[in-house]
Automatic annotation (TrEMBL):
Residues 857-1023 form the DNA2/NAM7 helicase-like C-terminal domain. It is found in: Nucleus. The keyword DNA damage applies. Residues 25-49 have a biased composition (Polar residues). It holds the Pfam family AAA_11. InterPro entries: Cas4_exonuclease, DNA2/NAM7-like_C, DNA2/NAM7_AAA_11, DNA_replication_fac_Dna2_N, P-loop_NTPase, PDDEXK-like_dom_sf, SF1_C_Upf1. Its cofactor is [4Fe-4S] cluster. It comes from Orchesella dallaii. Residues 126-326 form the DNA replication factor Dna2 N-terminal domain. Signal peptide: none annotated. Its EC number is 3.6.4.12. Residues 1-52 are annotated as: Disordered. This is DNA helicase. Residues 768-827 form the DNA2/NAM7 helicase helicase domain.
Length: 1067
């Protein structure tokens, strides 16, 4: 390797002073003391002068005690041997105070010519007012998109005498937003597809498969063999069997469709692979390997330093987990090397491009490990299946390119106000090889559509994506809408749980905030154990050395936490299993290295954010958009509002429960409950009835008796336990996903946790899991059982409490659906973006209600004469907030009052009111939830007679005074004001004092009945007459134009025909 190929890695803990270089040559063609006009074009073509030459910051001087590479073979380059091992050092000092962190103020210039580009920024130190310039050249000049306020970390280069940082080829690194840690695997995935790498940050991959399962088994087995020094095939096969028999692993094999024979074959194969590695490689005296550098011929393993090392590097904005960290003896020196295991076959030509991302992965590990072990000179890849071992010395240029990819990923995932991520154009991407089977290709297509690129400027891949996409404009609009909703919620979660506090905020400050326990020391050794979910781990106890005001009360048992030392961030993940006095015990993923136990370290335990439940909804949304017959069927109902015949009943007497099952199974039956049914899928049941539990249980039992498989989905574990406990007394053939709660121990034998323990293989697990009823919550829909089974029915309890995207995952595995819910409930975890966009249905029940209403309108409106009348009905029953109160003005139609012996009445308004009553009830409103108010007793009597003839006796009708006295609330209130006179009537010539004697002047009564409506207030009257009264004059001043609808003669005639026709139908 050439000398210039290696770039010394700067220390995150100490910034060495660099001697001032000689004064710049007056003939220099490059000067960093730039003006606002930027760098001259000559500077671009010629580069830096000798006077402002590159200054490479070396972290480890030859006599530096922190140097990782040691000249003596006896001195181990581990953390224990480093002077970082002291209590005075802090994570904040290493990763914040000891770094060159600056904030971008503005971009000064971007100079471009045929040969090069130079971008110059004005930057200011994060912790002071120190001003600098940042010049980016070569590949780094692509970072021309940083906006003011962007945080950067400059590594490997110092400012010159002109206070200017120059980052260029082979000289330094620029890390954009270093506090946002990107996983190493996401960075190297960009070698495959930059767009998919960006989207994979939000959306998980396309599910489990046999290749992934084989890799997990082989990986766990080889780590176990290296830790316990196992090489015997029988012993390794026994360990492989133990790995595969663990409940979680057995469920994974069941979910991907493996058989017991295939599992047995895999165990034998993995044992042979690992035995070969341990015998020939790990225990061998010397190991030959294929290397990029022919000068290196052999080495041998000396010691295993750790497996599954968790490493977070805020210096480079990266995080990852190293399969194994090993100590090797090579060229007479002891060296620390990251070792990554892969199961892919490297001999196939198809794998050569993918192999490059493996090399990039281990190369980045060498960069990240520099803080802990010093400069890492080699990285190692081992392909288990074909026994291929290769050594890869990290190259500076390759590392710079990888950091650039990391910066591009930061730009791509930088969301703003819930917008879609920025995605680079798919140049060089083969549609058939990569896009055709990609699970996120519809999002790519959506972004291409939004850019409106002219056809003659489209790339070939863009044309292929657009040509092969089968989604309609409405489906794309739905996809975009819900992507923005989920993105907005993801941003909210990230702001609430900010992992950067682990290194930017002192532990004592975090402890005072109640999210951390600091000043801890290790007590005793790690003890292997298995937690309640059968996951293996290691128990480790810590003792607090200093009494804190928060003590240990800030954290709770079962909290998911990150363990950090005073020199490393998040060295391990764990779960709190016990808290007592000043001690806290964690279940850790991996045992702590011996250096942590012997070194002088202090520790902090922080509660961190796990994967948000909202994140899984990306996958569910993608499942709805799949190119499959099942997804197409669901989109037709949920998005396209496919028309179906709808069977709707009038009221809810609560007595005909026996016909419920028959109604569900046979759409031709008529059921007297507020219930709607589409023949190809959905039954919608309102749950504002006291007998809902009886309805639910009778329907469930009836389905089981008719040998139907049922998936029950509840919004909470407690709700699910309540349903299954009620079922348990009648039928014990059911399964609960997960474990039982402490309050319902009787359900424990029916849980997947207990049944998977009893299974001895995939066949027995399949038999145990083949129950007619399966119960789960929305958060457990990723269980492997849903990869295998399909259900006849899905019953979603409290569907009004579930976000639509959370339910899509269940819809894909069921044929028909029963939704129980109340459309007037607000779901838990309401998205703030929905508050800004009232047109988004914020729960699945409302979404399907709008679907049901859309279907119902097609049959209801056919019975209304005239387009104008139909438009009026749509306006009146609209659920939009701005139309919650609507005034229908009858001043232009013949709807005049008449005087009886004792009171005033208005027959025309009664007929209009009946048309609206028909409309609300036939569209699904329970009659008992509808109220009618009139100010005059004569009008009330006419209304009651009309309702009796229509068998709508449950509708409440009262005068204004009576309605306000009984304190009853309704979902919809219709008020017919009755008073309606001709414009030439003497009434309009009477004095104000004479008008005050009327009942309509009683403002107090009028304003009392309006709030009694939960959803809709429909006001009916003659505006020209009513405005003569002061309360109505004020009312018309505050109502908007969209809330006042003047009734035309055409609409009036259409409504009268509709009301008379409905009267004939009812009679």
């Amino acid at each position: 390797m050439k000398k210039c190929d290696k770039l010394p890695i700067p220390s995150p803990g100490k910034r060495p002073r660099v001697k001032t270089p000689p004064k710049s040559n007056p003939k220099s063609k490059f000067n960093c003391n730039t003006s606002n006009k930027g760098v001259t074009s000559n500077a671009i073509t010629q580069g830096a002068s000798h006077g402002s030459k590159r200054i490479k910051m070396g972290l480890y001087a030859k006599n530096d005690p922190l140097r990782g590479s040691t000249s003596s073979p006896d001195m181990l380059p581990t953390l224990h041997a480093r002077t970082l091992n002291n209590e005075q050092q802090t994570v904040k000092g290493l990763y914040v105070d000891g770094q060159q962190r600056y904030v971008v103020e503005r971009r000064i210039s971007k100079i471009q010519n045929k040969s090069a580009v130079v971008v110059t920024y004005q930057i200011k130190a994060e912790a002071s007012d120190e001003q600098r310039k940042l010049v980016l050249k070569d590949m780094w000049a692509e970072i021309d998109w940083m906006s003011p306020g962007t945080l950067v970390n400059i590594v490997g280069v110092s400012a010159d005498e002109n206070q200017c940082f120059i980052v260029e080829r082979m000289n330094g690194y620029l890390i954009v937003e270093p506090d946002r840690l990107m996983s190493v695997t996401s960075v190297v995935t960009q070698m495959y597809c930059e767009r998919k790498a960006a989207l994979s940050h939000f959306i998980s991959g396309g599910g489990d498969n046999a290749i992934m399962y084989r890799g997990v088994v082989a990986h766990e087995l080889i780590c176990k063999a290296m830790t316990d020094k196992l090489d015997s095939i029988p012993v390794l096969k026994k360990e492989a069997k133990n790995i595969c028999r663990r409940p979680q692993m057995l469920e994974r094999a069941y979910g991907i469709g493996m058989t017991d024979e295939e599992l047995e074959k895999l165990q034998t194969l993995a044992a042979e692979w690992v035995s070969r590695f341990m015998t020939m490689r790990f225990f061998g005296n010397a190991t030959t390997f294929r290397s990029q550098d022919p000068k290196h011929q052999n080495f041998h393993f000396d010691e295993l330093l750790g497996v599954e090392d968790n490493i977070w590097s805020p210096t480079y904005g990266l995080k990852g987990k190293i399969d194994a960290t090993v100590l090797i003896k090579k060229d007479g020196k002891m060296k620390t090397v990251p070792l990554e295991f892969k199961t892919e076959i490297t001999k196939s030509q198809e794998r050569q491009a993918i192999k490059a991302d493996h090399v990039g992965q281990v190369s980045l590990y060498t960069l990240m490990m520099g803080v802990k072990y010093g400069e890492i000179e080699d990285a190692m890849l081992y392909y288990i299946s074909d026994d291929s071992l290769s050594l890869h010395p990290p190259r500076t240029l390759e590392l710079q390119q990888l950091i650039m990819k990391r910066n591009k990923l930061i730009r791509s995932i930088g969301l703003s106000d819930g917008d879609l991520p920025y995605l680079p154009r798919p140049g060089g991407i083969d549609y058939e090889f990569k896009c055709k089977t990609c699970e996120v290709r519809n999002i790519c297509t959506l972004q291409i559509r939004k850019k409106n690129i002219p056809e003659n400027e489209q790339l070939r891949t863009e044309k292929d994506l657009l040509a092969n996409c089968k989604l309609s404009d409405e489906e794309f609009q739905f996809l975009e809408q819900w992507l923005k909703v989920i993105n907005a919620k993801t941003e909210e979660v990230e702001k609430r749980y900010n992992d950067k506090n682990l290194w930017t905020v002192a532990p004592e400050v975090r402890e005072a905030a109640g999210t951390c326990v600091a000043n801890l020391k290790i007590v005793g050794d790690s003890v292997a154990w298995v937690d309640s979910s059968d996951k293996p781990g290691f128990l480790q106890t810590f003792e607090q050395t200093e009494t804190s005001s928060q003590s240990l009360i800030s954290l709770r048992v079962n909290d998911f936490v990150a363990l950090s030392s005073n020199v490393e961030v998040c060295i391990n993940y764990g779960v709190i299993v016990a808290i007592r006095d000043n001690e806290i015990t964690l279940s850790l993923d991996q045992a702590l290295h011996r250096e942590y136990k012997t070194g002088n370290f202090t520790y902090a335990i922080d509660k961190i954010n796990t994967t948000s439940p909202i994140a899984s909804q990306y996958s569910y949304l993608m499942k709805l958009m799949e190119d499959s017959p099942e997804a197409e069927r669901l989109r037709q109902y949920i998005i396209m509002k496919k028309e179906e015949d709808l069977y709707l009943t009038g009221g809810a007497t609560g007595s005909s429960y026996q016909t419920l099952l028959e109604y569900v199974l046979s759409p031709s039956l008529y059921f007297n409950m507020t219930m709607n049914y589409t023949s190809d899928g959905f039954v919608i049941v309102h749950t504002d009835y006291p007998d809902k539990p009886k309805i639910y249980m009778k329907m469930l039992r009836g389905m089981i008796e008719n040998q139907k498989s049922v998936l029950i989905i509840a919004r909470s574990v407690n709700e699910l336990d309540r349903i299954l406990t009620g079922l348990e007394s009648h039928n014990k053939e059911f399964l609960k996903i997960g474990s039982s709660s402490p309050d319902d121990g009787c359900l424990q034998p029916y849980t997947t946790k207990e049944m998977s323990k009893a299974a001895v293989g995939i066949a027995s697990l399949t038999e145990l899991y083949n129950k007619p009823v399966v119960g789960t919550t929305l958060l457990s829909l990723k269980h492997p059982i849903f990869q295998v089974r399909r259900f006849d029915f899905c019953i979603i309890d409290e569907a009004s409490q579930a976000l639509p995207t959370a339910v899509f995952g269940a819809l894909a595995v069921c044929d028909k659906f029963v939704l129980f819910g109340n459309p007037n409930q607000v779901p838990n975890g309401r998205l703030s973006s929905m508050e800004m966009n009232p047109n988004i249905c914020d729960n699945f029940f409302s979404l399907m209600e709008s679907f049901r209403c859309t279907i119902k309108w097609n049959s209801l409106l056919k019975q209304v004469e005239g387009t104008a009348a139909r438009n009026l009905l749509c306006h009146v029953v609209s659920k939009k907030f701005e139309k919650a109160a609507v005034f229908v003005d009858t001043s232009d139609v013949p709807a005049l009052e008449s005087r009886g012996e004792e009171s005033i009445c208005n027959e025309a308004e009664v007929l209009l009111t009946m048309s609206f009553v028909h409309l609300f009830i036939r569209s699904g409103l329970c009659p008992s939830k509808l109220g009618i108010v009139a100010p005059y007793k004569g009008q009330v009597d006419l209304l009651r007679k009309a309702l009796e003839s229509l068998y709508f006796g449950e509708v409440e009708v009262n005068t204004t005074d009576q309605y306000c006295s009984n304190f009853r609330e309704n979902h919809v209130v219709i008020c017919t004001f009755t008073k309606s006179l001709q414009k030439d009537s003497p009434f309009f010539r009477s004095t104000v004092e004479e008008k005050k004697d009327g009942v309509l002047e009683r403002l107090r009564r009028f304003i009392q009945f309006v709030p009694r409506s939960k959803n809709k207030v429909l006001l009916l009257g003659n505006r020209h007459t009513l405005k003569e009264y002061s309360p109505f004059k004020k009312l018309f001043e505050v109502m908007s134009e969209v809330q006042i609808r003047k009734l035309t003669k055409e609409e009036y005639e259409g409504l009268n025909l509709y009301a008379n026709r409905m009267k004939e139908v009812e009679s």
